[in-house]
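Suppose you are handed only these lines of text.
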Amino acid sequence: MTRRLEDKVVLITGAGSGIGAACATLFASEGAKVFASDLKLEAVQHVARQIVDSGGEAVGFAADVSKRADAEKLVHEVVARFGRVDAVINSAGVAPRNAPVDWDWERVWDFVMAVNMKGTFLVSKFAVEQMVRQGGGAIVNLSSIYGLVGRPADLGSGLDPYVHSKGGVAQLTRDMGVHFARQGVRVNALCPGFVYTALTKRLTDDAERLKFLEERHPMGRLGRPDEIARAALFLASDDASFITGACLPVDGGYTAQ
Ligand SMILES: NC(=O)c1ccc[n+]([C@@H]2O[C@H](COP(=O)([O-])OP(=O)(O)OC[C@H]3O[C@@H](n4cnc5c(N)ncnc54)[C@H](O)[C@@H]3O)[C@@H](O)[C@H]2O)c1
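From them, the structure of the protein bound to nicotinamide-adenine-dinucleotide can be written out as follows.
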């Protein structure tokens, strides 16, 4: 059977954990050369080693997507190593709870926006320049259900930079998707519901909270990282050749309510 990403070069940010790690593993099994990057070098090297040990091709690389120089170097390194970049999965992301507890709300807001919104923009900016030069490519951003709808009053404060940043990612996706459509670059976003990863562990470890969240999803459960990775594979592959500027809910029906 033909693999869906045979010999394609894929750059994945946030590949040391959760959805990014699931994408790295799945994409490698579909024949991709995976350039796996994360803020945490050890974590991403572990993911890359597991892929190589099971016969795939992967490299681990440390980069902070919120830093312009790192984002530029990231794209430069992928091209130096593999000659091109066919797809980018922007999965690096943080929630307010990832910030140190002694930070005030303004600093936390800036931090979340810097990683989720600016980080997605920076990596996409350098990647799209390369993709235009090489004649095409695909970018898949990680937005969220909260890029499409507000957080319900009993789940948030209305002042949550996570929600604001994911709305920004959705709009960046549409704007880049429209602009680069004729240059062969497709830009799409996934909008997952709650998924079991390190990002949500504090919520899902709390049985009462978990039940509450499960009930919010019409399917009555949360998602798994591999379910998001399979949607990312679709958008990154030629199967999605007529799809750009789209924000695809992968949410067990959450945003259909
Ligand atoms: N888990 C969910 O419920 C859920 C739902 C919707 C959207 N998302 C989005 O999916 C993406 C992946 O989330 P996840 O659940 O896999 O989280 P995760 O915490 O498991 O993984 C995120 C990874 O991003 C890395 N990272 C953080 N800051 C970084 C930076 N500045 N530079 C580079 N890497 C950085 C972390 O080290 C971590 O390995 C995020 O953008 C998240 O907002 C997650």
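What can we learn from it? The radius of gyration is 17 Å. Residues 29 and 156 are 38 Å apart (CA to CA).
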